[in-house]
From TrEMBL:
Entry cofactors: Zn(2+)
Annotated binding of Zn(2+), by residue: 151, 153, 222
UniProt domain Class II aldolase/adducin N-terminal: residue ranges: 23-249
Name listed for the protein in its UniProt record: Rhamnulose-1-phosphate aldolase
Biological pathway: Carbohydrate degradation; L-rhamnose degradation; glycerone phosphate from L-rhamnose: step 3/3
Gene expressing this chain: rhaD
Organism: Paenibacillus aquistagni
Record: active site: 128
Length: 284
């Protein structure tokens, strides 16, 4: 007998039925799972939301729990985030957002977070919170309209990290060559870390360091981080990189000789036509 997935219909009173920032998170995490990028509890997302917007749907004076951070983030003091929960399955986001998502606020001193909504059943924010928070800090310095940090296990990106050299310039150039739009979508190129233990403050620091120059960072044999000013932008960035990696894997797997490619001059022409500044040291 086929097991039926029960979708609990939200009632009009449910915050997640009304708040656009929660709907967006539910829909994007579910989409990522459907794409095969978030098996089991893989992946995590955090999204900065304005206080005024949160206050329209949630009583921001009511604190459910306060959790101490092992890494202080005074730069993010009093900021509100929607976050995915630690150990939670993206597959279940649409059916049960209150257990799988949370709305949190960083305290005035940056040493703790207040849980204001969701993360029911004593759940806590994503295990990759250090990478998320530290990346937010760096991206906000580069772009005050930055809002989203998104991590997933994009399949072809992971595959490519086994067979392509892990130097940032070479890897970026290969991706740019795979689809014409790539250079336009990520002219700032891809940051790549060495393999590291996930969930740690160390990988958080290393990821954030790369975020000073790039909006996307690859963790070899693990996955990708993408950032943006909106959920669509962060998702679109990862989607484009994953598509390029897929083309690369298809070409390599085809065992056919490469007969033609986008040339260096064509990439230069493309950057000029679209007014983007390509990551230095690749096309010159
Ligand atoms: O558990 O993807 O990197 C979620 C993860 C950890
Ligand atoms: Zn991961």
């Amino acid at each position: 007998m086929m097991e039926q997935l029960t979708i609990v219909k939200p009632t009009a009173q449910d915050v997640h039925a009304k708040a656009p920032f929660l709907r967006e998170m539910m829909e994007i995490t579910y989409t990522m799972w459907k794409n095969g990028w978030d098996e089991r509890n893989g992946g995590n997302v955090s999204y900065i939301v304005d206080e005024a917007e949160v206050a329209q749907y949630i009583d921001i004076t009511k604190i459910d729990r306060t959790l101490n951070l092992t890494f202080p983030v005074s730069e993010l003091a009093n900021k509100y985030f929607v976050v995915t929960g630690s150990g939670k399955y993206f597959k279940n986001m649409m059916a049960d957002p209150e257990h799988n998502l949370g709305v949190i606020r960083v305290t005035e001193d940056g040493k703790s977070i207040d849980i204001l909504w969701g993360l029911k059943g004593n759940a806590v924010p994503t295990s990759e919170l250090p990478s998320h928070f530290m990346s937010h800090i760096e991206r906000l310095k580069m772009d005050p309209s930055h809002r989203v940090v998104m991590h997933n296990h994009a399949t072809n990106v992971i595959a490519m990290t086994f067979i392509h050299a892990l130097d940032e310039k070479g890897f970026t150039r290969t991706l740019w060559e795979m689809c014409t739009e790539c250079l336009v979508v990520f002219p700032d190129g891809i940051g790549i870390l060495p393999w590291m233990v996930p969930g740690s403050t160390e990988i958080g620091r290393a990821t954030a360091e790369k975020m000073k120059k790039h909006r996307a960072v690859i963790w070899p044999h693990h996955g990708i981080f993408g950032t943006g000013t909106t959920i669509d932008e962060a998702f679109g960035l990862i989607e484009t990189i994953e598509k390029a990696a897929q083309i690369y894997m298809l070409i390599v797997s085809s065992n056919q000789p490469i007969l033609q490619r986008i040339t260096n001059q064509e990439l230069i022409d493309l950057a000029k036509a679209f007014g983007v500044e390509p990551m230095a040291g690749i096309l010159d």
